[in-house]
Specification:
The structure is a single chain. The chain is an alpha+beta fold and 100 residues long. It has a single domain, classed as Arc Repressor Mutant, subunit A (Orthogonal Bundle). It has five helices and three strands; from the N terminus they run ααβααββα. Strands 1-3-2 form a three-stranded antiparallel beta sheet. A hairpin with a 2-residue loop joins strand 2 and strand 3. Helix 1 packs antiparallel against helix 4 and helix 2 crosses helix 4. The longest helix has 14 residues.
Length: 100
Amino acid sequence: MEKQTAIGVLAALAHETRLDVFRMLVRAGGEGLAAGTLADALAVPAATLSFHLKELRSAGAVRCRREGRSLIYSPDFERMRELIAYLTEHCCEGVAAVRH
C-alpha cells in the first residue's frame, strides 16, 4: 500500500459518522447492509449517509453492490488488511527501538 492510500483510508475513517458506519458494516460481515438499514440504525438522513458512504467508497474502505433496487455496502476487508500491514511494517521504519 502506498502512503497516500493509507492516508486516504485513515482520513475517511476519521469522522464520527463514517467510523460508526464502518463499524456497523464490519459487524454485518461480508453480506453487508442496505443503505436504508444503515440510515435507520444510525438515525442519519439518507442524503448525509450517501455523502459519507461515497467518502468511504472513494477511500476503498467499503464496497457497494446492487441487489434489486437496494445498494448493499460491505467493508473491504482486504483493503483493511493492507492498511494494517502497512501501518505495522512502516510504523518504526528508521527509528531505533526504545527500551523501557
